[in-house]
Amino acid sequence: MKPRSSRALPGRGGVVPAGEYPDSAQDLPMAGPVLDIKDFSVVYRSPGADVRAVHRVSLALHRGEVVGLAGESGSGKSTLAYGICRLLRPPALITSGSVTYQGRRAGRPVDVLHLRAEGLQHLRWREIAIVFQSAMNALNPVLNVRDQLLDVMHAHLKLTREEAAEKAASLLDLVGIPRNRLRSYPHELSGGMRQRVMIAMALATEPEIVIMDEPTTALDVVVQRDILAQIAELKESLGFSILFITHDLSLLLELADRIAVMYAGQLMELGTAGEIQHEAAHPYTKGLLRSFPSLHGQRRELAGIPGVPPDLSSLPPGCPFLPRCDFGTAACSDIDMTMAHVRTSDDLTHLTACPFVLPDEQQPRADRTAATQAVEG
Amino acid sequence: MTSSVVESAAAARGSLAMQATSISKDFTLGRGAVLHAVRDVSLNLYSGAVVALVGESGSGKSTVARLLAGQERLTSGSIELDGHQVNVASRGAFRSYKRQVQMVFQDPFGSLNPVHKVSYILERPVRLHQHPAGKTELRAELLRLLEQVRLTPADKFLAKFPHELSGGQRQRVSFARALAAQPRVLLADEPVSMLDVSIRLEMLNLLDDLRKRLKLALLYITHDIASARYFADEVLVMYAGQVVERGPAEELTQHPAHPYTQLLVASAPDPDKLGTGLAAGSQPARRAESAAAASGCPFSTRCPLVIDRCRQENPALQPVSPARAAACWRLDIAAPETVAGQQERRKA
Predict the structure, then answer these.
(1) Residue A15 forms part of a structural domain
(2) Looking at CA atoms only, how far is residue A3 from chain B in angstroms?
(3) What pLDDT digit, counting tens, does each position of B99-122 carry?
(4) A58/A193 same-domain check
(5) Cβ contacts (< 8 Å) between A283 and chain B: which residues?
C-alpha cells in the first residue's frame, strides 16, 4: 500500500500526476475527471408545486479520489447520486445539466444523460456501481450470497460458470468474509457482513466509480471503522474512485479527499477535507462543524443550527439557508447561488455559494451565540 | 459484584431517584438455549443528573431500559424507586409506576400513531395521569406541554398529524408525551440518533434543559460515545450484557481503561486525523465481528490483551480511580496509570 503522503490531490490544478497511478498510467486516455457533473438539476413533479430536489449542482470526481457528499436528509444528496446513474423514476425529472463519464475502458467521454438503454446497461455497475444504504433491503432475502454475486456477473460480465463461481469466492476473500459463507442467506449474516457483501457485489465488475450511499450508517462504530479501512484498502489496490454520501461530516473529514456540502438541493461549499475543517467559508458548513460533539481533543463549544430545513416545494429566491443563518443580511434574499472561489483561499478549487462570509469570520450576532448554549449546563 | 464499588459521578447532582441492583435478564431461545441479555448490571439514577449507557447494538442497553421501565420481568436483581421496591405486578401498580418513570423511543416516525393528531396523542396520558377537571384545564395542560418542549405556537401544533411534522418536531412531541405523566425518571433510548446532525444538538440541549428545570433523573442510551461525553455526568459502557467500565464522562472518554472502551474511543471518527484514520491496517482487522465469549470475559474473543485467565474467569468491576471502575484482568497493561494498575504492579 502506498503511504498516505503520496495521495493524489487532483482537486488542485485539475491534473493527476501520471506517476500516482503506476498500474494505469499508460492507458489513461486523458487526465480529466472520471465523472464530470455540470449544472445538474432534478425536480420531483407533484400536483401542487414541483419539489426542487437538486438544483444546478456542478461537481467533478477525479481518478482515485474520494469525494464526500455531506448533507442532511432531504438535502438531495441521494437524488443527485441516483440521478447521475439515471436511476430516478418519474415523478423525478432531470431538468438541466450534463454528466460526462470518462473511464479507462470507455475510451471516449460518455454523455450519460443521453445514453440509450444498451449504453446505460453497460454504464451501470460495469463502470459505476452503487453500494446502497440499507444492506438488509438491498440484498434479496431468498437468494444466498453466491447466487446474488453470480446474478451480477451474469448480467454484466461474460464469464463461464466456473470462472464466475471462482470469482464469487475470491470476492468474498477480498472483503474478508470466509468462503464458507457463500451459501449463507442475508438473514444469516451480521449487519457488517451484509454490508461487506454489498461492497463485494459492487466490486464484482471492477467498476471505475463506486457510489456509496451511507454504507455504514446502520452499523456500530467499531464495525464502521473496520469497513471504512477495508474500503480504503480496496481503493488503493483496485484504483477506483468513490463518491461517498453521508450525513456524518466528521466521518468525511477523516476519509474524503474533497468534500461537497449540500443543503436544500444545492451545493453550499466544496473544498478539500482540510479546507472544510479549518477554513470553512459557508455559514452552513460552519454550523455543521459546530454541531457534532467530538470525542478527541478539547471540549469545544457546541452550538448546532437553529431552525429547520426549508420546504423544497416553495423555496424563496436567494439563499435557502438564510432563515437559519447567523450572518444573514437583506442582500441574501436575492443573491445568485453560484459557486465562487473563496476570496481568501490560495486554492482556486475551494468554492462557496456564499459571497459574503469568509473563513475567519466568527459568529456576528452576540445574542444568538449566547442563546445557543453549550451542553455543559 | 456490588453496586457501589465506586461513588457515582452523577451523585453530586441530586438525590438518588432510582437504584437498580445486580439486575439480570435471560431470554429463552428454545431448545434449552438461553440468551443472557443483561448480566448483573447495577446503576443509580439521580435527580437532575444524566447517566449514559453506551454500547453497540445487541449489548443489552435497550433491555436495561425496558427492565427499568417495568416492561420486562427481571430474571434476578432488584429495582428501587425512592427507596421502595418496584412492583408492577398489578395493572394499577404498573400505572402508578409509569406516572414516575417514562420512556422516549428512538424512532419518532414509528412511535407516534399516524392516524391521531398531536392533541389526541398528548391528551391520553394527561387524562390518565393528571385527571384534569375540565376541558379548559386539559387544553391548558396540552399547551403547557408543547411550550415546554418549545413547539410554539402551541395551539397550531395541536391540530397537526405526525406526518405534517419534521423529525425533530415529532421527537419533541414524544418528549411532551413522556412529560405528560410528570415523571421523575426519564429513560431516553437513542433519542436523537434518527435525527439530522444539525437538529441533534438542539434536542440534546432541550433534554438537558428539561432535566435541569424539572429535576429529571435521566438515563441516556446511545451508541455514540462522543455525545455521552458532552451530555452525561456518568457513563456506563456495556458489552454483551455487562457493564465493562463506568465513570465520569470526561475521565472515561479521555482515559479509557477497559480495552473495549479503548476500542470504542479509537473507532470514533476523529476529524483531527485528516485522512490518516482511514489508513488500512491501523485497526484490528475483522475482529469486530467475532461473537462474545460464552465463558470468561465476554470481550476475550476480541481483546488484544487476552490471556488464559480472561477465557476462564469473568472479571468483576474494580475501582481504577475514586469515581471509576472497570472489569478487566489486564488493567495493569490496559491502563497502567490507574490506581488498580499501580496496585497490581506493586503486588507483582
Answers:
(1) no
(2) 9
(3) 999 999 888 878 899 999 999 999
(4) yes
(5) none
